[in-house]
Write a structure and sequence with these properties.
This protein has 295 residues and is an all-alpha fold. It contains 14 helices and two strands. It has a two-stranded antiparallel ribbon with strand order 1-2. A hairpin with a 2-residue loop joins strand 1 and strand 2. Helix 7 packs across helix 8 and helix 11 runs antiparallel to helix 12. The chain is globular, with a radius of gyration of 20 Å.
Length: 295
């Protein structure tokens, strides 16, 4: 059912973006700008495209790797290429690589050790250093390490400047704007691009901590951090108690998305909340009367 829905969403995205759909690397930012208008934030098409792909492809791909199903593996790869062609997004390829390595390890050894993840991260950094020393330039550092360590520090400075100039946003760019009693505004990341970097087309993605601070100061940071912690605890519980290995790709998706998006966007726009609900339904045996049913 999930696979069929995902295929239908992929077809919808392709048809809606057919006029500019391309795999050209040099035009990735052009496609991002065009996709912003075609799949507008908050629109039905935007939610459908985001949830129908980003929430599903990590799970479908992980299932394919774990069960050795070529169809599901291929579907995950197709998702990555469609997101690249329609939205200019590179991150799905990185997510697929990480999921493939994790699920192969999990399928062989029955678990994933934290020490191996840390060792892999350190090895990755060392490879970037070696590449730079040998070739004078490092693709690993430029496309991955820079995004993880250098870009966030620059954007955090922009966040501080934005708050100094305009104050807190009070969630005016989210569905909570009506609850907060403020008028709906442009997405914060684009406002930072326009007001701080003088580039209205720049989507200044920054981690959920910074977005929470932009919205309502440190109180919002504490609340959202606690919510993220509860999600991690839920995923850990489902894995440890019920052996739900699908928590691995969902957790990976959640972790990678909150590094560059707000918590609300990740939960609703990226479909993480939907996948969490789905995980609970399929993992936890519910009891009705005297009978227990596993969904």
């Amino acid at each position: 059912m999930l696979a069929l829905f995902n295929v239908m969403v992929l077809l919808f995205i392709f048809l809606k973006s057919a006029s500019y759909f391309s795999f050209d690397f040099s035009e990735q930012y052009v496609r991002r700008a065009l996709a912003r208008d075609v799949f507008q934030a908050g629109s039905g098409a935007g939610y459908l495209a985001s949830i129908g792909t980003q929430a599903f492809f990590p799970v479908l791909f992980a299932w394919g790797v774990y069960r050795k199903s070529r169809a599901y593996v291929l579907l995950g790869v197709v998702n990555a290429f469609v997101l690249w062609g329609a939205f200019g997004q590179k991150y799905p390829f990185m997510v697929l690589l990480l999921i493939y390595l994790l699920m192969q390890y999990f399928r062989r050894y029955g678990g994933v050790k934290l020490s191996w993840l840390l060792a892999g991260g350190i090895t990755f950094l060392l490879l970037g250093a070696v590449e730079h020393e040998v070739f004078g330039y490092s693709y690993l550092n430029d496309y991955f390490v820079r995004r993880a360590f250098i870009v966030p520090s620059t954007l955090l400075g922009a966040v501080d400047n934005f708050v100094s100039l305009f104050g807190f946003n009070s969630y005016s760019d989210t569905l909570l704007s009506s609850v907060m009693g403020v008028a709906k505004s442009e997405p914060l990341t684009f406002r930072i691009g326009q007001e701080i970097f003088s580039n209205p087309q720049l989507n200044a993605n920054v981690n959920f901590f910074a977005i929470a601070y932009l919205q309502s100061g440190y109180s919002a940071v504490v609340v959202e951090a606690a919510f993220v912690g509860s999600v991690v605890m839920l995923l850990n519980y489902l894995y440890m108690r019920y052996g739900a290995f699908i928590t691995i790709p969902v957790g990976l998706l959640f972790a990678t998305k909150i590094l560059e998006q707000s918590l609300l966007t990740v939960l609703m726009g990226s479909g993480v909340f939907l996948m969490l609900a789905f995980l609970v339904l399929v993992s936890v045996p519910f009891t009705f009367g005297k009978k227990a049913y596993e969904r």
